[in-house]
Amino acid sequence: MTNINHSLAEELDFNSKQFIDGWVIVNDSVMGGISQSKISVDNNILSFSGKLSFANNGGFASARYILIKPIAAKDKVSMTFKGDDRRYQLRLRTDTGTGAIAYKVEFNAPANNWNSLIFKEEEFIPTYRGTTVDDAPPLKLADVKQISILLADKQPQAFRLDISQIGFL
């Protein structure tokens, strides 16, 4: 596992009851699909798991968390995770309304080993329902109100992503 200087990061508190209970699942069922996912927290590890399905035009699973307090002015996001050799998205929103733009960054989640990545603000791509929004304002982490994890890698099978840390540098 790559070390991140956690003393410099403002991290989400995985032990907080508000954090554990604050996640909302948003799967392809919103458009008729039958993919399934869940969030659980055990021993300070957030697990996003489930199964993707293409039935009924489905194919994505996601979980969203609305931040309790604003992020202090930062310009990078750090994340430590272990996956299942699939490609996930970390998504940030500055608005929580139904038509909000999601700023996404994709990452590979290798299995068996913990990995740490740092994403710069400018690496996040503004999207709306999977389409790039060319005229969107640049992402400012201080404006982020929601964090989400999404899987839409066109592999209809079980998945699991474990996250031990999400922080802002």
Describe the structure.
It is a single chain. The chain has one domain: Galactose-binding lectin (Jelly Rolls, Sandwich), CATH 2.60.120.430. It contains one helix and 13 strands, in the order βαββββββββββββ. The longest helix has 5 residues, at 17-21. The strands form two sheets. Strands 2-5-12-7-8-10-11 form a seven-stranded antiparallel β-sheet. It is mostly beta strands.
Can you lay out the helices and strands and say which pair or pack?
Layout: E1 10-11, H1 17-21, E2 23-25, E3 36-42, E4 45-51, E5 61-66, E6 76-82, E7 86-93, E8 102-109, E9 115-120, E10 125-128, E11 131-132, E12 146-151, E13 158-168
Antiparallel strand pairs: 1-13, 2-5, 3-4, 4-13, 5-12, 6-9, 6-13, 7-8, 7-12, 8-10, 10-11
Task: Briefly characterize the structure.
This protein has about 170 residues and is mainly beta. The protein is built from one helix and 13 strands.
Tell me the major beta sheet. Answer: 7 strands, antiparallel
**Topology-level CATH name:** Jelly Rolls
Report the average pLDDT across residues: 90
Give the terminus-to-terminus CA distance. 18 Å
Radius of gyration: 15 Å
CATH architecture: Sandwich
Classified by CATH, the class is Mainly Beta
In CATH terms, the superfamily is Galactose-binding lectin
Strand runs, count: 13
What are the low-pLDDT stretches, counting only 5+ consecutive residues below 50?
1-8
Structural class: mainly beta
Could you list some keywords that capture this structure?
13 strands; 169 residues; 1 helix; single chain; Jelly Rolls; 7-stranded antiparallel β-sheet; 6-stranded antiparallel β-sheet; disordered N terminus; mainly beta
